[in-house]
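As a warm-up, study this chain.
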Amino acid sequence: MAIRVVRLGTERVEDEGVRIGTVRRPPRGVPKTRFASDNWYDVWYPNLSPSAETMQLGLHAETPAQWNSFARKYKAEMAEPEAAHSIALLATLSHQSNFSVGCYCEDESHCHRSILRELLTKAGASMA
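Now compare it with the structure written out below.
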């Protein structure tokens, strides 16, 4: 059993399980009825996405210093009780079932999901 970190909208892998969208906004131009069938996500969970303000920092980060500023702010948001409890819950569930978390960004290394992967790992999640 494990958590897989994915790019939303990509083909699912065998035994991926439920796909959780950790994004601020649903995909544009896609009817809600097609979110799962088009491989976006089964469950939308914006609680683990950066705030709108922090998301803008990440989107506009062009230097390592700017990216590090985004990462620090996102990690601080994820340390807040609601998000920290969600991360702990997902980490625990990863030992019982397969599921995935993801975002739309093409490059994971320049996306909050790379930091979410790190936070889940630190929380003891079983990662694919």
